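TOKENISED FOLD:
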Amino acid sequence: MEIAGLLRYIKHAGIRNTVWLTADVHYCAAHYYDPGKAVFMDFDPFWEFVAGPLNAGAFGPNGLDNTFGPQVMFQKYPPRANASPLEGFQFFGQVDIDSRSRDLTVALKDIDGATVFSKRLHAASDWRGNDD
């Protein structure tokens, strides 16, 4: 429950709008974590963006645990496990922060650099899943 302790600390310390960037996985995804849908509820909502692999066999995710109320907002993975990098299921992420608005945009991209998913999170918002 180390993650629960960390998430509780972030909430009670008043740290807002955290984003988790995850790699070393073999698929591409965006998850929104909602305490209203979670078993453990003492945290503020947050986003997780998953990108990988850059050059390894690709396969889909395991089932998600509901401890922190994850919602799959986007996923892309091959139809069969351990797909060759030549099959095109290689992904990477790009994060941009607008210097004026401080909005954060995450783009998940395929091996050719085409955006397969993008999410703009507004700095002044509470990031409750409604920003575009």
User: Anything to note?
Assistant: Residues 2-12 form the longest helix (11 residues).
